[in-house]
Amino acid sequence: MIWLPIVGNYCEIDAYASILAYADLLNQRHKPAKTYIPFTPNYSVPTELRIKDLENAHFDMKPDDQAIILDVSVPEAINRLVPNNQILELIDHHPGYEEYWHERISNRAIIEPIGAVATSIFEWWGECWDYEKMSPAIAKLLLAAILDNTLNFNADITTNRDRNAAKSLTAIAKIPLDVFTKWYFSKVSDTIAGHLTDSLLNDCKTVQNLHFAQLTLWDATKILQDTTIISAAMNSRHANWITSIISISERKNYFIASSNKTIQPFIELLDLELKKSIYQSHDIYLRKEIITKILAH
User: Fold this and answer.
1) C-alpha distances in angstroms, 287 versus 212, 269, 294?
2) pLDDT tens digits for 73-93?
């Protein structure tokens, strides 16, 4: 059996879409594969896009099973589930552990600068199988992951590979890109607005003892009208925190933090400006891009 597990403490659209698409591809090629999705996907995965028949909440990895790891490369997190000698392949786009994995699994580790792992999975489907055998449901998942992870192609990490994959996926999904984009981000925004606390707490990462949450909306205006819920939710989880609220239509981030001391390094790093009591950026950033800047600083 080949397992494709979610690694970490939450499940977002790029990992979810990539795992389901790769498992579907393997099973179509008569290579038995199972996903492992122990959490309800977060706000980035609209209910209408979920394919529950491909979700598996139980993990029972045998010594002769193998695993494919997608959208993560942090060794400690992976090894809590899978030992290195059972990793068949690792595909990620987060920098930092390239040398570690190349030393251990050689060219079976593919860690490259690309907008979404979903793009890699889409390309792999065409290389080893047949795009005519990709369902519209899988195509919509992969397309949503690319849109989300590139911030509708506005993030610096966006590549032409992401753009080309998205264009091809709209044909398979049989839906215009602009129509799907509007639908997807509207659904995400509605979920966040209706479940703000859960949306925050289900998309947090810990970086150097800092709890770093991210929300991605088409328009952040309404969320920013009352930030007390955000502060209360984050304070319930950690004393030292920051929340990045991405407003795609404005091409900027808004930042709320636990203290002036916490936000000060971000002000300097991203040249943030204080307007109406909220710090905002002059450009748009994904959390992974900010973390890369922090670690390199």
Assistant:
1) 8, 13, 10
2) 999 999 999 999 999 999 999
